[in-house]
Specification:
By secondary structure, this protein is of the alpha+beta class. The protein folds into two domains: about 90 residues, lambda repressor-like DNA-binding domains (434 Repressor (Amino-terminal Domain), Orthogonal Bundle); about 190 residues, 2-Layer Sandwich (Beta-Lactamase). Helix content is about 45%, strand content about 10%. The chain contains 14 helices and five strands. It has a five-stranded antiparallel β-sheet with strand order 2-1-5-4-3. A hairpin with a 2-residue loop joins strand 4 and strand 5. The C terminus is likely disordered.
């Protein structure tokens, strides 16, 4: 994903995103580098230029919490991005050991299947769809595959119409994968997804290099389904107990509103003879597991 170190790449991207006037520094003449100079960040953080250069070059492996806090303040990082900075400095032994792609629990599948009026699905760190109930599958039926949210946004042509606020969805996808990367920089699955999407979407590749970090928000979404039209939804995301690498995403509609009526239409479609009824979420998980052997993003050439 890079020729540098995770920490160095992050610091360089965040430094280049700032202008001198953003941090109260004068700006004279033509600058040879985008954003701030390394020496300027060092000055703002109260460390030597040599020390900061070692950080960006990956030659300083154990910066103190005080130094990281000072650098975060110098780079104007918000709390979530500052936490990401700290995670990038963790050693392998300091990282959680439970980031593997374990399956979705049977109890959670049964819970999702019981929500007949509510689309719900589970995503992994790379935004792979790990399981979904029948209404969530019907909601995303306009896509070639309901397999990975980032692929659906950036590569599937349906994404531009489905996500009415496409740019916001695009930024959210990349920032969420970047946040997951901070928890597990060695993740082979994240590396595969980033490589595939970068190869097939210049927009994804450019956004990935900004190193923006943001977990799933609780903001509303404006979607457009090819059969039932405009949908205005609220959603919530929950970390799954016992599986911190999984997030349960739940979409909701205002009661008795147009979106709720559209959900009912989708529910009727999902309950047709081609569906298998209450076992749909389990079936979706089984299909995802079969596809997982090659990776849900395989075959790309052929906020979600």
């Amino acid at each position: 994903m890079s020729n540098g170190t995770p920490l160095g790449d992050f610091l360089r991207a965040r430094r280049e995103a700032l202008k001198p006037h953003d941090v109260g520094l004068p700006e004279y003449g033509r600058r040879r580098v985008p954003g701030l100079r390394r020496e300027e960040v060092a000055l703002l953080a109260g460390v030597s230029s040599d020390y900061y250069i070692r950080l960006e070059q990956g030659r300083e492996n154990s910066p103190s919490p005080q130094v990281l806090e000072a650098v975060a303040q110098a780079l104007k990082l918000d709390a979530e991005t500052a936490d990401h900075l700290n995670r990038l400095c963790l050693t392998v032994s300091q990282r959680p050991r439970d980031r593997g792609e374990s399956g979705v629990s049977r109890k959670l599948l049964q819970l999702m299947d019981g929500w007949e009026h509510t689309p719900a699905f589970v995503v992994g760190p790379a935004l792979d769809i790990m399981a979904a109930n029948s209404l969530a599958t019907a909601l995303h039926s306009g896509f070639a595959q309901f397999d990975n949210l980032a692929r659906m946004v950036f590569v599937d042509p349906a994404g531009r119409d489905f996500y009415q606020e496409w740019e916001r969805a695009a930024h959210s996808c990349v920032a969420e994968i970047r946040a997951a990367y901070g928890h597990d920089p060695a993740s082979a699955r994240i590396a595969d997804v980033v490589a595939e999407l970068s190869a097939h979407s210049e927009e994804f590749a450019a956004l990935w290099q900004t190193h923006e970090v943001k977990s799933k928000s609780q903001e509303g979404k404006h979607l457009k389904h090819p059969q039932v039209g405009d949908l205005h939804i609220e959603f919530a995301a929950f970390t799954v107990n016992g599986a911190p690498h999984q997030q349960l995403v739940v979409y909701q509609a205002e009661p008795a509103g147009a979106t709720a009526a559209a959900f009912e239409t989708l529910r009727a479609m999902a309950a047709g003879p081609e569906q298998n009824g209450p076992e749909q979420a389990g079936a979706e998980q089984a299909g995802a597991e079969q596809a997982g052997a090659a990776g849900p993003v395989a075959g790309l050439a052929g906020d979600q």
